[in-house]
Amino acid sequence: MKLSKKQFKQDFEQRLITKFATDVTKAGPQEKFAALASVVKNYYSKIWQADNEYKDESKKKQTYYFSIEFLPGKMLKSNLLNLGILPTVREGLEDLGVDLDEIAIIEPDMAIGNGGLGRLASCFMDSLASTGLPANGNGIRYRYGLFKQKIVDGYQVELPDSWLDNGNPWEVRRSDKAIEVRFGGEVWLEDDGKGNLIPQYKNQERVLAVPYDTPMVGYENTTVNNMCLWRSEVPKDLDLQFQNLEYMRQTAMLSSELYPDDSNYDGRLLRLKQEYFFVSAGLQRIMRHYHSTIKAPINQIAEYIAVHINDTHPALCVPEFMRLLVDEYNVPWDRAWDLTVKVMSYTNHTILSEALEKWPEDMVKTLLPRIYQIIVELDRRRTAELLPKVGATLVHNTRIIKDGQIHMANLSIIGSHSTNGVAKLHSDLLKDVELHDFYEIYPERFNNKTNGIADRRWSQIANERLSTVIDETIGKTWRHNLNDLKLLEAYKNDTETLERLDAAKFDDKQRLAELIKERNGITVNPEAIFDVQVKRLHAYKRQLLNVLHILKLYFDIKDNPELDMVPRVFIFGAKAAPGYHYAKSIIKAINEIAGMINNDPEVKDRIKVVFMENYNVSLAEVIIPAANVGEQISLASKEASGTSNMKFMLNGALTMGTLDGANIEIFDAVGAGNYFKFGLTKDEVYAYYKNNNYNARDIYEQNPVIHRILDAFIDGTIPNISMEGPEIFDSLTTYNDEYFVLRDFKDYVRAQKSLETLYRDKTAWTKATLMNIANSGRFSSDRTVREYAEDIWYIKPKQ
Ligand code: GPV
């Protein structure tokens, strides 16, 4: 949009008066933020309305992305950037003596997601709008987002994230569009005399779902999409007497808290209620819109809407859509099923068995009796139809209902026309191994969509210094088309460019060093290698492997106090699910090891270990630009994709990585010389499973280096871990090291050595850095959503 600095200053000062009866000299930071956000909202509102009108009139097909998590982080700068007014606003504020960064920091992170899955959903929201694709988000407006992490005595402590205390300037509450969602009670079918079976209900629990719309502003275009988040309330007509207090409490709880589990299934009733709540409300809103605005016959609905099931949490979309079509719109069963499969599509984000959702039949039957009937009927008809075609084994292995449980992945695959994995390796594993039986029956449904990132946030916003260097080298077209970063390759031997890249990195490292000083009280040397692992704490991600390597270096120094090594700062950021005991023990161990090493005078600052508390999107925006190395060290086959690997690459950090998830595609893009590869391949991992011949205790007994490192966990070397030390030690020995940490250790150490060697050659290192940036174009989520649009949703961009 067009905006002069003068106009902006006027708008901002005026808003301070109308909103807070104050001026720029007296306003507090919260007031300044709220006034600025309100001005920005005013700027995009006209575009939003116009785009809504365009969508209504053109009636073009739209996607609805159902996700139980979103993780947008802060929205102010992203909105400013996308509106094309970030520099104008920054300068305007400067004229008024206000620092934009100091205002931006006031906004709480919107953290209604756990990690990669939620962040991916938000990257998609940005990219969908930025590529002009007509799409909507659908989720839950949790009153409390992901917990805030404090580290106390080295332990993780969880505090509530009460992010709405000062209001949310971006959202619009639409009470007029509230919808009722019903749970429990009894249901039976009655013949209406015309051969139709009409469900009758008794004693249902009614909940009001109120939508809060948040605009998703496209990058320098005219698209503004909508992310709809639902809040649960008590229906207004209910008689609120004393006996209803418990009911009111239950209702409020539906949209009260985000479950803090990442890649882990927790089969609690409240979670199932949340899943149905946002699914039913979202689909009902779509149906209303279809009838009020699209006004096409119901049997054409698949030509106007696509519904995406982001992992299995919204899998109830399948039976709920059936219910709406069959019960509310009198569509015959077979026709309804055909429409459902055409409308739905599904993404799988993991093969870890502990993350696969299976709900007990009884629970679904009691909470959602009509949905249960529909699922039983779907299962029955499918079994009858397929038995003669594919045989009993395949049918049994792929049934929706098995052993008294409803398998949500099976429901999602069967009820949709597309199932995709999130990186090539992961999609291949789905086809060849984990979902092979489904692949036999529905080969045409399987496809790959390698993840991507909203590059604008991770470069233009998070790393202005690097962005400027890139502009000065190859011009600005990369800001619109990330593939143009490829132009950088022409400068890979250009000393001046390499020096500038290096200087930008140094600035970013200094900025992080200051933050570390402020938050952790640790002084780190910006000349050191910044070696970073930031992601949820999970055994399969193997933060422990990183820790063992740090201990190895530490003992090398203890054995040889004069050891010549490039100084390293190991930086961790990780939240553990509150109920994940083992993960919390690792956090405690990292912090105790940090204390031990950082305070050992003999180390002479050659190693520093920093655990930064409360890792979240906005902390990532400071840490990742400052990284020299990104640790992507999951056991091959376990990390479906990973997305921080792409953020590191884009910011000129080199990957220390296994051949897992999207790492493989990064490796292919940058070439062997610009990536530190180590570890078992997925075939080697699967061979161990097949032959059942992994023996971690043997490695411990036979490798003296590993022996000594592991003993440090139980012999008092590492202080204050008398509970955690043995737990970790036993997991690696007695319990046979589930994720082959010991097996990959030696090769990891080798790769780390070669990393150090390369870092000593500054030019060679920076050149590798440039090659990473230059080849990161493919990992823009603009590319990813375009692929979804073409291959899965059949939607077209505006213009
Ligand atoms: I399932 N993922 C996640 O963050 N939470 C989950 O509950 C599940 C998956 C992640 C995967 O672990 C990552 O490898 C992947 O990059 C991300 O989803 C986005 O696809």
Features:
Rossmann fold, 31 helices, 799 residues, binds 1-(beta-D-glucopyranosyl)-5-iodopyrimidine-2,4(1H,3H)-dione, alpha/beta, globular
Commentary on this structure:
- With 799 residues, this protein is α/β, with parallel strands linked by helices.
- Among the domains are: 59-74 and 109-140 and 168-349, Rossmann fold, CATH 3.40.50.2000; 460-680 and 744-783, Glycogen Phosphorylase B (Rossmann fold).
- Helix content is 48%, strand content 16%.
- It is built from 31 helices and 25 strands.
- Strands 1, 4, 7, 8, 11, 12, 13, 14, 18 and 19 form a ten-stranded mixed sheet that branches. A six-stranded parallel sheet has the order 22-21-20-23-24-25, with helices on both faces. Strands 15-17-16 form a three-stranded antiparallel sheet.
- α21 links the parallel β21 and β22.
- The protein starts with a helix and ends in a 6-residue tail after the last helix.
- 49% of the residues are buried.
- The model has no long low-confidence stretch (mean pLDDT 97).
- 1-(beta-D-glucopyranosyl)-5-iodopyrimidine-2,4(1H,3H)-dione binds at residues 114-117, 120, 262-263, 311, 349-350, 355, 422, 451, 639-643, 661.
Oligomer: single chain
Radius of gyration: 27 Å
Structural class: alpha/beta
- The number of helices is 31
Overall geometry comes to globular
Q: Could you list the spans in which at least 5 consecutive residues all have pLDDT below 50? A: none
Q: Which CATH architecture of the domain at 460-680 and 744-783 would you pick?
A: 3-Layer(aba) Sandwich
CATH homologous superfamily annotation of the domain at 460-680 and 744-783: Glycogen Phosphorylase B
Strand content is: 15-25%
Distance between the termini: 17 Å
**CATH topological fold name of the domain at 460-680 and 744-783:** Rossmann fold
Major beta-sheet overview: 10 strands, mixed
* Average pLDDT level: 97
Give the tally of β-strands.
Answer: 25
In the CATH scheme, the class of the domain at 460-680 and 744-783 would be Alpha Beta
Helical proportion, percent range: 40-55%
InterPro entries: Glycg_phsphrylas (IPR011833), Glyco_trans_35 (IPR000811), Pyridoxal_P_attach_site (IPR035090)
Cofactor: pyridoxal 5'-phosphate
Keywords: Carbohydrate metabolism, Glycosyltransferase, Pyridoxal phosphate, Transferase
Family: Belongs to the glycogen phosphorylase family.
